[in-house]
Amino acid sequence: MTPEGKKPDISPALCGYSKALEILSDKWTALAIHAMDGESIRYGVMKSRISGISQKMLTQTLRRLERDGLVRREVFATVPPSTEYSLTPLGESLLPVLKRMKEWADAHYSSVERAREAL
Amino acid sequence: MTPEGKKPDISPALCGYSKALEILSDKWTALAIHAMDGESIRYGVMKSRISGISQKMLTQTLRRLERDGLVRREVFATVPPSTEYSLTPLGESLLPVLKRMKEWADAHYSSVERAREAL
DNA sequence: CGGAATCCGATTAGATACTG
DNA sequence: CAGTATCTAATCGGATTCCG
């Protein structure tokens, strides 16, 4: 069964896993996307919702998501000024993927913790 | 519509996204899991399959996966010695999650690249 | 063969201070 | 309010060397 021939190389530059992770893998990206799920949200509100994020990291995360076409940024010239962030359709297409990750964690993360303790 | 009440805080320590990413988020983990998909594989074979990985990073990645209960390590006292790595059931439970990530990348990554070029 | 240990340069991220 | 700029501590990862 399963006669393994020579598989092609597994490469960070070509593999789909790595491409998805290139976008999702940092500490704050998934949390920021989650904060924008279903609503437009102001910078300050997002910052206060995401526990522990610095304004530097929030700005950096949002800039990258905007550059990648996942997030839309709208500036309002009010006094004081406000900025609203929301997901583009491309950004929304990531939500099911994140949902699956969350489902896995909810179902299996306790097993990981038990494995760690068993050392 | 969608009258947003005060949502609970979004925290890296508590959020399911972050728990899953804590395991998957580094550069090599997903590729290593992919290499073990469906088969037991020797250290050296894995190293040669995964383009660009150093032995330090491969060992580090595998040690962490083993500690987390996702990977099984078997040492054979042959001459020369050999070590086989394979996924545990817990590790296999991650495969559908990774598959989803790959599917997203295959379907949407080109849009990300186009967004980047449009700057 | 399959590692562990050390060294060291590069990247990262928090804190702080300043601005339109 | 929503950033930008700078500095610095810590972490990361590649290369190298040595071991069972």
TrEMBL record, chains A, B:
One Pfam entry name: HxlR
Keyword annotations: DNA-binding, Transcription, Transcription regulation
GO molecular function: DNA binding
InterPro entries with a match to the protein in the record: HTH_HxlR, WH-like_DNA-bd_sf, WH_DNA-bd_sf
SUPFAM superfamilies associated with the record: Winged helix' DNA-binding domain (SSF46785)
HTH hxlR-type domain location: 15-113
Name recorded for this polypeptide: Helix-turn-helix domain-containing protein
